[in-house]
Structure to design on (510 residues):
């Protein structure tokens, strides 16, 4: 180890290639964090290549991102046609005709220092048929179409409401572009078709546009989406293919006119070759059918998808292809892949924008000097790889914990060979309801239990320490919890009233 460490010179300029959600989120965050340094930030995007633009559902961490930027929540929702999201309603996943809700926030209240769900399992053993989701404030509010923003001064159970947003990803990128340009980010329009790599170091020296312009940089951020123009095209960083675990690989998406009141949750309905989302925005719905091409052609997917849509189509359906997995090196030399260029695990739990956020926050924590220390690259890759693996396991849980046997897709996933990490976690959970988060793992016991119990694989046993409370005490405590939750939800305003009052957007031209 070198103890006479002398810091290498700092990065002077950052070049971001790509102006989708990832590009503009990165530009906005760097403009905020690097604002007081002499580092220049340049973003290059090409109007010839469309953004994916269908990432519209999020998880609660997005609020932290916006608040770090100093973005007002209501202004953001007005600018992006946004609504609130309390969780996801899963239909037909355990079995056709069944549904359950995966809420943000927690189930019930812990008692005597022991997780709530152990008492719920014991209560079931005593004969209760009350589903887990009736102990979730988020679920009850979602099902009753209610929402209120928790404010600390309420001093009530409402503080436990956790929320994220649905929004128009294209409008979000525009919103962040205005934010970034106001803070000194320079945008150039053009198609990158040359990447000049220094032969001696393997570092990217400069990129060239089709019209001949060139941009040299110290640090390059690849936000070019599935293309991975820098990270793969130039640096050949490799891709770990997870098709065997997450076999969906196609999507067809379209926006439709609203036919009902926007619900404060996403809908994910399983069909024989995949699943379909419905994401309610203020003036329209986002819809998409994610499916596995091994079992369904693109043409047939569109026919099936169209037949299930309710509102008038506002555009022609857009087809997308992807390979689930992660980049082997998300940080390679002086290039960092953020967004789809770094990997994609399918949109089932709306985790992709979160992964952008995770990549940005780790880049800021490890913001490099010009020599790009190898150990820091390795640490970045380790952290991001862990994020990917934890989320992958949770996504796979939705598929393996099915009892469906009505189509080749469900027969495949029901029997797939689990990653060891997932097999271990499922065994702990299915036995006596044991669950522990590893490192900075994203999804906690609420999420794992919601999916497992919702699909008919609730834990068989519980922590024996619950017997420290008498049976009648457990029954009474659980009844009180339901009562507190019902009263709180009854007092909340309808979600749409809250949106109309505080963050109603103007009409948009679609
Ligand atoms: C079917 C589907 C559904 C999804 N749903 C969700 C969801 O609900 N929630 C969620 O969090 N995420 C979701 N995602 C993921 C989400 O859409 C992406 O994470 C997000 O949009 C970021 O994309 P991106 O910016 O990395 O790439 P893109 O949107 O593809 O943007 C790439 C950018 O790079 C530019 N570019 C490419 N090549 C070049 C070049 N050679 N020169 C110059 N510029 C170039 C393009 O012009 C574009 O600006 C979904 C993804 C898919 C496929």
């Amino acid at each position: 180890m070198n103890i006479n460490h002398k810091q290498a010179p700092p990065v002077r300029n950052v070049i971001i290639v790509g102006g989708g959600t990832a590009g503009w989120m990165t530009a906005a965050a760097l403009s905020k964090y690097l604002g007081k340094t002499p580092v220049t930030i340049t973003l290059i995007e090409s109007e010839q290549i469309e953004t994916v633009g269908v990432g519209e559902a999020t998880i609660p961490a997005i609020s932290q991102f916006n608040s770090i930027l100093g973005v007002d929540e209501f202004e953001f929702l007005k600018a992006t046609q946004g609504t609130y999201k309390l969780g996801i309603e899963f239909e037909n996943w355990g079995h056709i005709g069944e549904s359950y809700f995966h809420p943000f926030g927690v189930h019930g209240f812990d008692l005597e220092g022991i997780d709530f769900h152990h008492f719920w399992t014991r209560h079931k053993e005593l004969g209760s048929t009350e589903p887990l989701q009736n102990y979730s404030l988020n679920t009850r509010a979602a099902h009753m179409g209610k929402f209120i923003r928790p404010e600390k001064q309420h001093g009530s159970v409402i503080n436990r409401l956790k929320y994220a947003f649905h929004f128009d990803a294209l409008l979000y990128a525009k919103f962040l572009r205005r934010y970034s340009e106001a803070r000194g980010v320079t945008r150039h329009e053009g198609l990158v078709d040359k990447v000049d790599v220094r032969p001696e170091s393997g570092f990217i020296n400069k990129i060239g546009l089709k019209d001949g312009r060139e941009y040299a940089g110290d640090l390059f951020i690849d936000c070019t989406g599935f293309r991975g123009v820098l990270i793969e095209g130039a640096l050949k960083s490799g891709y770990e293919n997870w098709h065997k675990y997450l076999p969906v690989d196609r999507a067809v998406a379209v926006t439709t006119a609203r036919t009902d009141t926007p619900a404060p949750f996403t809908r994910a309905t399983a069909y024989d070759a995949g699943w379909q989302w419905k994401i309610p925005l203020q003036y329209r719905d986002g819809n998409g059918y994610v499916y596995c091409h091994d079992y369904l052609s693109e043409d047939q997917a569109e026919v099936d998808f169209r037949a299930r849509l309710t509102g008038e189509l506002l555009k022609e359906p857009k087809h997308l292809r992807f390979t689930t997995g992660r980049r082997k090196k998300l940080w390679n030399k002086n290039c960092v892949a953020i967004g789809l260029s770094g990997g994609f695990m399918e949109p089932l739990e709306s985790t992709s924008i979160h992964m952008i956020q995770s990549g940005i926050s780790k880049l800021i924590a490890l913001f490099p000097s010009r020599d790009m220390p190898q150990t820091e690259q390795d640490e970045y890759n380790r952290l991001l790889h862990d994020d990917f693996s934890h989320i992958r396991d949770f996504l796979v849980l939705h598929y393996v914990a099915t009892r469906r046997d009505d189509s080749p897709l469900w027969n495949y996933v029901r029997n797939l060979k689990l990653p060891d990490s997932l097999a271990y976690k499922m065994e702990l959970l299915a036995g006596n309801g044991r669950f522990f988060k590893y490192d900075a793992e994203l999804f906690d016991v609420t999420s794992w239990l919601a999916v497992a119990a919702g699909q008919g694989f609730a834990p068989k046993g519980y922590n024996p320490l619950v017997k420290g409370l008498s049976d009648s005490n457990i029954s009474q405590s659980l009844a009180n919890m339901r009562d507190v939750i019902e009263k709180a939800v009854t007092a909340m305003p309808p979600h749409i009233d809250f949106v109309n009052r505080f963050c109603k957007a103007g009409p948009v031209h679609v």
Q: What stands out?
A: Residues 374-400 form the longest helix (27 residues). The chain has 15 helices and 21 strands.
